[in-house]
Structure to design on (156 residues):
């Protein structure tokens, strides 16, 4: 079960008790915002892409959309999302619970600057009814992000 791998992952830092689980779905930005009673833009959604043969995760604010031109300029290729039936195999998490924690070795994580405008954000924790509240700095630390990038539009 994916949330268990994330719980174990956060146990390393005694952060596993901060994981929130809901009686309702948090599988989309809107559902997560409702479950958390927060603004949708504070949901840190994790989008999964194929970059050649590698899985790349880009964590963005809930109101941000990938800007294909910015993505291509940064990564040298058009943004190609992972097909839903392959998401679990490549990220270790099912659609609706994809997060940058407890992921397969070699998976690259990038954080979009759209997240930096918030004191805290809420990424999923490996299931479609979970989240954790983290500052952007904590998100960077716990996700082992490669870097902060600017590949989104429609949020500023």
């Amino acid at each position: 079960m994916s949330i268990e791998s994330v719980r174990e992952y956060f146990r390393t830092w005694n952060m596993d008790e901060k994981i929130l689980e809901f009686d309702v779905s948090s599988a989309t930005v809107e559902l997560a915002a409702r479950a958390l009673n927060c603004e949708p833009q504070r949901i840190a959604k994790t989008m999964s892409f194929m970059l050649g043969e590698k899985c790349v995760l880009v964590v963005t604010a809930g109101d941000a959309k990938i800007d294909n031109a910015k993505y291509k300029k940064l990564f040298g290729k058009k943004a190609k999302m992972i097909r839903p039936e392959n998401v679990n195999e490549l990220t270790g998490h099912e659609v609706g619970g994809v997060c940058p924690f407890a992921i397969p070795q070699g998976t690259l994580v990038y954080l979009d600057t759209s997240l930096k405008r918030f004191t805290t954000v809420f990424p999923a924790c490996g299931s479609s009814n979970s989240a954790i509240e983290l500052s952007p700095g904590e998100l960077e630390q716990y996700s082992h992000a490669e870097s902060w990038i600017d590949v989104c539009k429609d949020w500023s």
